[in-house]
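Open question from group meeting: does this chain pack into something compact, or does most of it stay loose? Before anyone orders reagents, we agreed to write out a predicted structure and look at it together. Recording both the input and the output here so the notebook holds the full record.
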Amino acid sequence: MRILLTHSEGRLEGLAAALARRGHDVRHHPLVCTRAREGEAVRAEAEALLGLPWLMFTSRSAVEAWRALGLPWRRQGLPPDESAPLLAAVGRKTAADLRRAGAEVALTGERSQAASLADDFLAHPRAAGPVGLPQGDRALPTLRRALEQAGFETRPLVLYETVVAQAADELLAAPATTTADTAATTAATTAATTTAATTAAATAATVVVLASPSAAGALPESVARSATLVAIGPTTAAAVEARGFGCRRAASPSVAGVLATVDAMTADATAADGTTPDGMTADTVTSGGKAPASKRGGQP
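Structure tokens returned:
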């Protein structure tokens, strides 16, 4: 299958290469990117959040935007028990980014969902408000509403903006590449591709993988109608369905979850007619994109 990955750079590491090793033609062209807010005003607003009992980071982009402001993770010059805030993260990846940046993480929502973090916070013995919410301009209100409904005041602060990364409304067909090496190289050099290359990849895609509600909103209607959509996470699936399109939900919001879903799609297609949707035989897929010797003129 041809698979178009649309997530931002630095996310879902290893997915493109893993799909390529399975014999798929993989293209990676982010539909959206984030841009951190700058200036003394936003820095002062963010610094004020350090006086709150908790800060909750709902995305890796929020961590990056905080770091871009050059702020510490705690108030300086105070004893540890007085230097609030405690830090919480949605998902292990966000928590890992915080730790790499030198922060201590007191709470991680293990299911990589805002609702999961809210549940875990409410059960935490040190749960207290107000709660600071560094976030993007398109952040869903899920976490804020859950906290406020439980009686905790929140202080949301937009630290970054989400913008369309490519001219995604001009997607055109492109020739396929089928070898693992070619696909992996394509994924590794996405930052250098042109808009023409981006538009070339997508309409020909059999499957489009969407990793965020923003990406779901940026996907052109013509592509959404012609491809099978795979949504990572319930909020992304809801955004796809809100546009009137169907989708398959990844087995989990992770690289492993996407791989499991694509494998299931390949198996379904193979069971239906003995070939994958792009005409490859089941033997070709299981051998990493190369036909077995018996189907290459008897060569060993």
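Observations to bring back to the group:
The two ends are 26 Å apart (CA to CA).
The longest helix spans residues 255-273.
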